[in-house]
Structures are given as structure tokens and as C-alpha cells.
Amino acid sequence: MSLRESPPRTPPPVPPAAPPPPRRPAARRRAWRRLWRRLWPGLRRVLWLLPIAAVAAWVVGHRSVVEDGVGQALTADARWLAAAVASTALGFVAVSFARQGTVVERLPPGRLLVSQFAAGAANHLLPAGIGGSAVTVRFMSRCGLPPARYSAALALYFLAEGVARVGLLLVLLAAFPGALRLEEVLPERVGLPLVTILALAALAAVAGAVYAVRPARRAVGAFLATALRDARAVHALPSRVAALWCGSFAFPVLQAAGLVAVALSLGLGVPVAHVVLAYLAATVVAAAVPSPGGIGSVDASLVVALVATGATVETATATVLAYRVITVWLPLLPGALTLAVLVRRRII
Looking at the DSSP assignment, which residues form a beta bridge with residue 127? Predict the structure, then answer.
């Protein structure tokens, strides 16, 4: 009997080494948070000095404008200039009321007022109101509002402020139809129909781009849903309605009152209602030019508007320079110092 040879045994296949498990997003977030906690104390020591350095650089860059405005202000009636300073200070109170009216929650009134004073300084350092909006958003987030809520509050504030400003302008244009003689200071081809067509075309282009991109359409839809829900909640409370709309209307009125006071101090020779109309028209037009704090755009628009109401170019320029010193340059350094203190104390 012969023994059959058994075939050689092959070793079992070795399974390939398993790849290391991918790092989970939660672990990555924890690593970023640890890194941020290490870096933030040093960054905070630098950030609170940035507003002061930015103001110093801005003043040096616009030294001639500041000197001319201060020189014009020194020759004016001090009592009217004090009234202009008071109306400018009250403007921060009006903005604080309007900001409170955009949310249902009660914000700390003292800190809200101080934050808006600091936001005024930040608004003159970045274009299109980005600085002031960033300070306000940071303050509201510190008060416990989630991003969707404070974004909706910011949109409601700009909407109410725009409605108030344009509404006042339309009322004054209807009451004084011949007050602004723009045809005397603008080229013949520049007119309201051309500006309206360009604005509508820009809005249509933006709306079409948003609608064509599905993620953008969804994001805008979610934001609008949150904004409408918050707007309904705010308007269900009479106290918030009064704060929002009274503050929104009071702010441009107080700013226009400051311009009227400066015009009276320098003897501009233009009726008060026409000066208010010139201010509203100039600020509405200058809002389309995203310059920091309206520097340049507001100045030029105010001069053009005052000349269109009948003032001379020299007197209008002197009035605008003095007015901008009071409303922009005078509060800029205290506002920057306040902003630095708020950042250092982690209020914003």
C-alpha cells in the first residue's frame, strides 16, 4: 500500500494593513480651539492698540483737511458749534435706541451706548459701515445672540434707517420741490432717470446671480426666513417698535440739525429746511460710494447739495469742513480709545 503524498500547505493570505482611521472633524476642531486659546491672549494685547494706531495714521494722512476744518470752526459762532456737538452726541443715543429695537432681548443700555460710540470710530476706519457693523455684531454675540439672530438684527437696522432717511428726503422734496437746483451744478447728462436705471440694473444682476447659484439661494432664503420671523417678533412689542423707528428717524434728524447749527454759525445764508434737504440728499447719494465713514463721498456730496440750494462754493466748503470736524474727527480719538478699552475688557 503506497502512501499518497499530500500537497504542500499554503499559508493563509495576510490581510493588508488597515489604513489609519481618518482624523475626525471633532478632533480637528478641538485642536484648533487649543491653538486659538494659546494665541488669543497675545493677539488681544495687539488688537486693542490697532484702533489707536489706525486713527493716528488716518489723521496724518488727512492732516490738511483737519487743519482747514479746525480753522473754519475757530472763526464760527461758538454757541452754534456747541449745539452741533450736542446733536452729534445725541445721535449715538438715537442709534442705541434703534439697535435695541432690532432684537426682542433686552441689551445692557450702558454698554450698548458705549459700544455704539466705539462703533462710530470703527465705522470711519473701514468702508461701507463694516467697522461699525463688526463692533455691533461682536457686542450682540457677547450678549448671547446667535449668528442668525444678530445678522437679522443688523439687516433690520439698515432697512429701518434707510426707510427713515429716504422717507424724510421724499417728504422734504415734496414740500420744497424747487429747493435743490441740481441742474446748475451737475453735468447735463447726469440725471435721476440714469441713476435709477443703473441702480435697478445692479439690483437685478445681484438677484439673478443669487438665484442661479443653488447654495446661495438656499442661504439667502434661510436668512430671509429668520429675518422676517425676528421682524414680526420685534413689531409685536410696542416698546421695540418705538425704539426702532423713533431711533431710526431721530438719527438723521439730529445729524441734519448739526449741519444746520454749523451753517448758522458760519452764516451760510440758506433756509434751514433747505439745509436739511441738502444733508438728506447728499447722504443718500454718498451711501452708494463705500468709503470709510463717508470720507470724501459725503464731503463732496454735501458741498454739491449746499451749492444746489443757493450757497456759494466757498461758504459751502467751509461749512462742510467744520461740520465734518465735529461729527468725524472730534469723536474719532475718544471713540478709538473706547473701542480699545472694550476689546481689552472683552465686552466686544
Answer: 292
In three-state secondary structure terms, 345 is: coil
Instruction: Name residues whose C-beta falls within 8 Å of residue 319's C-beta, 6 or more positions apart in sequence.
Output: 72, 259, 262, 263, 266, 268, 306, 311
Is residue 216 pLDDT above 50, yes or no?
Answer: yes
**Full DSSP string of 329-340:** IHHHHHHHHHHH
What does the pLDDT look like over 28-56, one tens digit per residue?
A: 777 777 776 776 666 655 655 565 565 56
Nearest-CA neighbor of 116 among 136, 87, 143, 88? 136
Q: Nearest CA to 148 among 211, 214, 230?
A: 230
Whether residue 255 contacts residue 120, with contact meaning beta carbons closer than 8 Å, is answered with no
Which tens digits make up the pLDDT trace of 202-212?
Answer: 777 877 776 77
Q: What is the pLDDT of residue 55?
A: 52
Q: What is the spatial distance between Cα 245 and Cα 249, in angstroms, rounded to a whole number?
A: 6
Ordered DSSP codes for 18-30: PPPPPPPHHHHHH
CB atoms within 10 A of CB 40: 11
What is the per-residue pLDDT for 69? 61
Instruction: Report d(CA 323, CA 131) in Å as an integer.
Output: 22
Q: What is the mean pLDDT of the chain?
A: 79
Q: Which of these, 47, 107, 17, 16, lies nearest to 336 by C-alpha position? A: 47
Going by pLDDT thresholds of 50, 70 and 90, the confidence category of residue 185 is very low
Identify the bridge partners of residue 292 per DSSP, sorted by sequence position: 127
Cα–Cα distance measured from residue 130 to residue 290, given in angstroms and rounded to the nearest whole number: 10
| Alpha-carbon span 219 to 133, nearest angstrom | 20
- 317: its cell numbers: 466748503
